[in-house]
Write a structure and sequence with these properties.
The protein has 82 residues and is mainly α. The chain has four helices and no strands.
């Protein structure tokens, strides 16, 4: 899907030069430190979150109401149950 999207952007000449980002399989995943988990949910009034993240969440609610959850599943809560 990512490769098809890059090709679409290149074909449309969205950028002056072709996209050169390498797309590859994920080799490893490292979870963030505990204080970073669920940061936007736990700090909604932090300036970065309110300026950058909350507008995206509002857009998601409009575009995909069938998958939007009013109450998020927190990573910290999910890992505490395992």
């Amino acid at each position: 899907m990512a490769e098809a999207y890059v090709k679409q952007l290149d074909d449309l000449k969205v950028f002056k030069h072709p996209i050169v980002t390498r797309i590859s399989q994920l080799q490893a995943f490292y979870p963030a430190e505990p204080y970073h988990q669920d940061y936007a949910t736990l700090h909604p009034y932090q300036p970065y979150v309110s300026y950058n993240d909350l507008p995206k969440v509002e857009k998601l609610k409009q575009l995909m109401p069938e998958v939007y959850r009013q109450k998020p599943v927190l990573v910290g809560a999910a890992t505490a149950n395992n």
